[in-house]
Fold each of these.
Amino acid sequence: MSLEILMGQVVVGLINGSFYALLSLGFAVIFGLLGIINVAQGTFYMLGAFGSWMLLNYAGIGYWPALILSPLIAGAVGVVLEKTLIARVYKLEHIYGLLLTYGLMMFIQGMFVYWFATAGRPYPVPLELRGGFDLGILFLPKYRGWVVVASVFFCFATWFAIEKTSLGRTLRAATENPQLTRAFGINVPALLTFGFGAGVALAGFAGVLAAPIYSVSPLMGGELVITVFAVVVVGGMGSILSAIVTGLSLGVVEGLTKVFYPPGANMVIFVIMFIVLLIKPAGLFGRER
């Protein structure tokens, strides 16, 4: 086995892991702050990709503005859904949130299938990121390198914002003790809405990054969300840092599996999930209740 093939699959694993990390992070933010198992996260990823595609084809807006606008649009959709539907299940069992978001996923995905069918649509790589770098042991396309760097940066920036800033502390306080937080004059419902919208915007951001690599399709999120859910379970539900580390790590493991045992690449993450659930049901970084 050549070193070029091995390193190439590590890079592929890091790229896939970057998307796993971003989506898992958004999933963990929403569950950790709101207690909602948001299985529609893959749909918001698809909305981000389609948003960038529609901005380009219908409004002539290119990749770099879309990288800001499309996540904001996805986040705005999330805010509307939170205000009208999601907020109604906060005090109910987790299964109600799961069923509600599953229904939203099927509804939104069905609308896009009706409008655009299931065929994938190409999205061009921005001119500044075309070409690549010859690293000796492999050729690294610029855009794929950008995806890894941007994903890691935004993942850790989100972790820092939630864990190390006053806004993050206020968000956590609003979740853990809403009555006391209201006593300080803080608008708790607005904070919860912001938290849900931020988690959705992360998925939309991942979708924009994915658009030039994968075909933009209504089914792209549904195919990914099952893997992301497995990643979250392995790391531990609601643990923000574990979502980042586990997403990147399992992406690399998946890539290496394609080298050593290709037939097992599509199932290795789920095999790891089963093993983790048997040994530590709360996840590798989760806390037992």
Amino acid sequence: MKKLSMFQLSLLVIFGGLAIAGVLIFSIAISGGENNTIGPIKIWGTLDQGAFAVVIRQAAENNPQLSQVTYEQKSETTFESDLTNALASGTGPDLFILRQDYALKDAGKAATIPFSALSKSQFENTFIEASHPFLAQNGVIAVPIFADPLVLYWNKDMLASAGYAQPPKYWDELFQIAQKVTKKDDSGTITKSAIALGEYKNVTNAKDVLATLILQAGGDITAYDNTGRLIPALAPRAGVTSVQSTASALRFFTEFADPSKNNYSWNRSLPESQRAFAAGDLAIYVGYASEASMITRTNPNLNFGLAALPQIRSAANSVNTAHVWGLAASRAGKNPGGAITVALLLVSADIGGSLSAALGIPSARRDILNKPVQGNNEFFNKQAIVGYSWLDPDPDKTAELFRAMIENTTSGTLLVADAVQRADQELGQILGL
């Protein structure tokens, strides 16, 4: 019989005990106990350090196993390189916070939890749909903890002045709204804009907005073929009857940056769209739920509301997207068994719920999202529940791909169909095909 490693034994003890107890794996049946049997566990992430420190310190009062857990906040711009270099030199963290769109790219850095310890069905029943990129063929890359859905921010005063009491429910409503809300001076320069779409450089979340439009139109960005290989899906494959979903989404997205159109409302000379919305110069802005507090701090007097993303009128189902953060145990960590134990403790209903509240970000757990909450949190939770995501092979490279697809269209360099075809080919190169 093959000998089990200490890490495998730790997982069997942790998860086997939970299975015998007959409770949900993430309700955490690991006893707090009187002794700390885990040791020091260092966590790296880009989320707020203060919130983590407070919650971990409070949790450690009830569970000494967490008494040596520390969290260190890293810069978003250098996190990937810092993590790679630290793991290579043996000075990296035991756990790191991984966003779902980096799951494929960074899977090699994580100690995958096997399905024998955490089954696919347990994962899917516990966490929202947008968490699925953390599912690998042989196990779980990271345990989901937070979700951040895209939502619609709308300036109540700007829309009211144009006769609108509510934000749009369908994307096609934007054509008329853009004509009525967008203001230009005598030289034709846009001074007030209805919606920031059509460009990449100064449209915050441009990649994610266009990706969402593609998914809403019934398309895919990547997909598995019959052999289980991940392939590009922006353009229809040869011999397959398919609606040109990407072309339709791209055409709509870029429509608002065309000066020859009546609904022209945005161009690359305008400020970055999140900043324009906070300044009161943009009526409708697509952003993440986590941006609400920043917008409020920037302009406390801004009279804005929140709504679900508009949908395609003819679509059978509503589609939204969300970022999901998970806790991944470092493959190069000194204590992978302890790291997995801490990860499960931190995503438990009690501690995970406290972290979610402290950070102001929805949980990735279905049971926490279903609990009654107050104010905007209820809305954000509902949007997280219906959030989706797609398998992104390399977020930085695909961001450049989306930028080129948009700018090739708005500049007139390529026709929409040709821009999509080129992006599809480039996505194949990123996937190594």
